[in-house]
Amino acid sequence: VWAFRARRRALEHFAAGLLADKLTTSVSRSARRWKAVLLVGAVLCALLALARPQWGFEWRQVKRRGVDVFVVLDVSKSMLAEDVRPNRLTQAKFAVEDLLGKLAGDRVGLIAFAGSVFVQCPLTIDYEAFRLALRDVDPNSIPRGGTAIGNAIKVALKSFEAGEGGDRAIVLITDGEDTEGDPLAAAAAAAKQGVRMYTIGIGTSAGDLIPIREPGKPMEFLKNKAGEVVRSRLNEEVLKQIALKTGGIYVRSAAGDFGIDTIYDNGIARLKRTEQEARLQKRYFERYQWPLGIAFGLLVIQLFVIDRKKILGTATLCALCLYGFDSRAASVNWPLTYNQGVTAYRSNDFLSASKSFEQATASRDRHLQARSFYNLGDAYYRLGQAAEKSGPQAALPAYQQSLKGYESALARTPTDEDARFNLALVKQKIEELKEQQKQQPKQSEKQNKDQQKKQPSSPQTPAQPEQKPANQKPAQPAQPPPAQQQPGGEAQTNQLDKAEARALLDNLREDERNWNFFPELQQRAGTEKEPEKDW
Pairing mode, if any, of strands 117-124 and 208-209? Predict the structure, then answer.
């Protein structure tokens, strides 16, 4: 829609009035609308193809290659210490999400522990489900306080599925403060099963107090049964021994480097990956080819839709372009062009006058357009009168052009009675000339017959064929139409009828209006005094 409107505005700037209509006579508007519909349809089908439509499916057998990794995360209250910003638990969650981004096809599970242990997420390759489980864990996830590292390792070993051929690993993230169980014995059991443990110690040796924040209450620090404030410190020794017993790696987290990259690159990435169980998976068929093919077909079709009824010749097109260019370049000189036509008309140079008035019809001033069309009709009328000496056939084209000029003037100023009167007069003149054309062969035949009667041919001499007279008597010129805006001529000395007198009077009145309307005529005359009204 925007393109159609922009094209119309550009055409209005390029040419005005009848010229614009003539330039667009070969344009098929319905074909242009069809091209637009096809193009929009092609774009919509292409967007549909980008959406990847799928329907229909088949079952396929899928085999998995990878290792199983359990993340065992300490969520006890000691993980709320803020010696690692913002606190130990939040920093540990960020590190686990980084690890998740490195796993490709490996199954991962989550175990949260404090005084008791809970499998938060079993082994899965649905990493989004794992993320949801990871974000939900906090110290309130485990109702029993404490830190049971040994029990957490045992639960992880039981959660591994039996019969797996690939390597298995446990990533233990804690501050190492064990208050229950025997973590080293659990690590020895993991080593017998071939499970490697990678431990990450989080916190500082100096430790920090454990803040307790409850809604509507001031912040307090965790205290033991004796009422003393508890300070949580990192216990590295037990974490190092766990990693050593299972052939794993221990890493101490630091600001800016939690240690996940080291554990994955030097540990998990080097584990043996074997094919696991095969399972059936539903696979949907891609159907984007259909809308994409339709889009391509619509594009091809719209290329062959011709939006023109006929193709203009190169010479004609160039001429129209040059005319449009000249019209725009001279747009500020339309009054001067009109005045040049008036001057040529006064000098009886009706051919030059018609050219100037025709150029002035391209003005955007509708009043000046109407005056130009009116005077264009007058100029062609004078040319028709001069051409009548050569016969009706030579005069008809000029009178027809005069008729078009008056029609265009009436189209712009329907209340112009003078143009209406002149239009009727020119129509009558054209009818008379056409009637003369019809009567001319009859008169010629009659003259030939009369001549044959006066000079009969001898019997021995063959009769001459009928000859048409070389010259035909010109029809009497019609009286000139009243030119409301044409320059007036000399006063007639013979007696005038009512219509002729009115035409002459209007001519002279138009001279007076032109004098007042165009100051250029006053400057050319060299005086600002109004001419005498000798009429």
Answer: unpaired
CA distance 184 to 179: 13
Provide the mean pLDDT of the chain: 77
- Work out the angle between the directed axes of helices 149-159 and 183-192 (0-180°, nearest 10): 20
Give the residue among 479, 488, 529 at the shortest CA–CA distance from 508: 488
Q: Where are the alpha helices (DSSP H) in 388-470?
A: 392-412, 417-454
User: Binning pLDDT at 50, 70 and 90, where does residue 293 land?
Assistant: very high
Task: Assign 286 to helix, strand or coil.
Answer: strand
Q: Mean per-residue pLDDT for 15-20?
A: 68
Distance CA 250, CA 241 (A): 9
Q: Which amino acid is at 106?
A: D
Is the pLDDT at 492 greater than 60, yes or no? no
Nearby residues of 43 by Cβ (< 8 Å), 6 or more positions away: 295
How far apart are the C-alpha atoms of 131 and 428, rounded to whole Å? 96
pLDDT score at 39: 92
- Taking phi over 0 as left and psi of -120 to 50 as alpha, with beta for the rest, 494 belongs to beta
Structure-block tokens of residue 79: 């993980």
Q: What is the DSSP letter of 27?
A: B
CA–CA distance, 155 with 165 (Å, rounded to integer): 20
In tens, the pLDDT along 381-420 reads 988 888 888 887 888 888 888 888 899 888 888 888 888 8
82 in Cβ contact with 202 (< 8 Å):
no
Phi, psi of 42 (to 5 degrees): -65, -40
Residue position matching structure tokens 């999400």:
97
The CA-based dihedral angle spanning residues 439, 442, 448, 454, taken in that order and rounded to the nearest 10 degrees: -100
Q: How many CA atoms lie within 13 A of 383 on its CB side?
A: 24
Radius of gyration of the chain (CA): 52
Do the beta carbons of residue 114 and residue 146 sit within 8 Å? yes
Q: Which residues contact 95 (CB under 8 A, 6 or more apart)?
A: 173, 200, 253, 258, 259, 260
